[in-house]
Predict the structure of Stalk domain-containing protein.
Amino acid sequence: MRKYRGFLIGLAMGGMLMTALPSMAATQKTTYTLTEASYEVEVNGAAYFDPELPVLNYKGNTYVPLRSVGDLLGANVAWDAAQRKVVIQSNGEHLCNDAFCNVKVSGSGGQYTVTGEARVFEAVMNYAVEDGHDYVLEDFHMLDEGAPAWSPFTLELDIPPDKLPDNGTLMLELFEYSAKDGSKINVISVPLETFAP
């Protein structure tokens, strides 16, 4: 019996390793090595530059953050938390989600008029303007009616000259706060203006 004891222990250990290794391998993710691109990306005459989120290259392919590309193209890039997916809408005249629709922007140099329709809880829509790093304006707007009705809105935004970015895109976020947990929901990001040095 002693003669077979070592053999049985070895067989048991081998069996455990054979079942553990494939499951360990399945949980490992592939690692990619990207390098900062030595060239610039230009879209419609505007160069993309962000030292915190640089253009990257992997095997001859260029990688730029989705939101940054959306900003340069005037497209809306939003995270749909409910469905756990990124949503890109390229037609700037019809930016829509469950709470905001037909959002349009006019103006320049810090003076913007934003129009559209909203259906938000208790008729309170919130908005913020960010320069790519920080919020330069945060406020709310009362609609004529709350959800489920759609209500038209007009926002007159006045951003002081010292708050405008030297390089980058000024973005407007429209959103509402969840009645359930107070988190931002139905966020829609709208480019106001792209600035270049």
Remarks:
- The first strand starts at residue 35 and ends at 36.
- The chain has two helices and 14 strands.
- The first helix runs from residue 2 to 27.
